[in-house]
Design a protein that fits this description.
four-stranded parallel sheet; Rossmann fold; lipid-binding; DegV; six-stranded mixed sheet; DegV family protein; 288 residues; 2 domains; globular
Length: 288
């Protein structure tokens, strides 16, 4: 009988060797021309503290190296797995998925590819559901539509008052950043699911608090509720304000809502800057 391993990147916030059967390849963070393996050589808090101390610092990010991907595939084969279910950070943010596809072809191992169209909490939940389904004996062909349905009922919405990092990192155009700064507006941005998770402006408001409340109202308008969805709220070193918004979020969504809370992955937070906050929702997997 075939054995399926899950291959994911560090954007899912699962540590290497944390879960048997789940193989994590680290994304890369480049700071002052030095490359660090995400959550191996450096963690989110350290990266963000460096950004806070040096406001001109512009860390960059990169997909996992081909060598790291091949190494993970070699290891999972040695561990007795002969199929791969790959779940990666949004293709609109990184080329990780294509890198995994190429490596699996080179290593001649069957693979099913899942674009999370997000990262962080939503990505982690997809990995957890996939592992559950594998343990239930489901095949890759059976798992793929289940995960893709969850992706179709998910979203990542972000806000930041500092657009410099998004601009310099090429995530938004200089014209958008200049206009926002001139008019003193805060853009609310969403990962566009039709474009593989590329960042798109959802709306624009005047204050940081209004931006956060607008995100919550948008989630409600999309049908997000405590019974059917799992939420994630993560930030870039603004815990005091984010905690206030977390309380507001729980109040708006309703009693019993599950909200994972903490720091954003460094590979996302470096593009948002200090004070950035990301909200996510994803439909719960509920077997029929």
């Amino acid at each position: 009988m075939s054995r399926i391993a899950i291959l994911a990147d560090s954007g899912c916030q699962i540590a290497i060797n944390e879960i048997p059967g789940v193989y994590i390849v680290p994304l890369q963070v480049i700071i002052n021309e030095k490359t660090y393996l995400d959550e191996v050589d450096i963690d989110s808090k350290t990266v963000f503290e460096m950004m806070r101390k040096d406001k001109l610092l512009l860390p960059k990010t990169s997909q996992p190296s081909s060598g790291a991907i091949v190494e993970a595939i070699t290891q999972l084969k040695e561990d007795g797995y002969d199929e791969v279910l790959a779940i990666t950070i949004a293709t609109g943010l990184s080329s990780t998925l294509s890198g995994v596809h190429l490596a699996c072809e080179m290593e001649k191992i069957p693979v099913t590819l899942i674009d999370s169209k997000g990262t962080a909490g939503n990505h982690k939940y997809l990995v957890e559901v996939a592992l559950q389904l594998i343990n239930e004996g489901k095949s890759r062909e059976e798992i793929k539509p289940i995960l893709e349905d969850l992706v179709d009922h998910s979203a990542t919405i972000i806000m930041t008052s500092n657009l410099d990092h998004l601009k310099r990192g090429g995530r938004i155009t200089p014209a958008v950043a200049m206009l926002a700064n001139m008019l003193k507006i805060i853009p609310v941005m969403k990962l566009n699911m039709d474009l593989g998770g590329k960042i798109d402006v959802l709306t624009k408001v005047r204050t940081v608090k209004k931006a956060n409340l607008t995100i919550m109202d948008h989630m409600l308008s999309c049908g997000v509720n405590a019974k059917d969805y799992i939420l994630t709220m993560e930030h870039v070193l603004c815990d005091e304000f984010a905690s206030q918004m977390l309380a507001e979020l729980k109040k708006k969504i309703g009693q019993g809502v599950e909200v994972a809370y903490g720091l954003l992955p460094s590979v996302v937070g470096v593009h948002m800057g200090i004070g950035g906050i990301g909200y996510q929702y994803i439909k719960k997997y509920q077997p029929e």
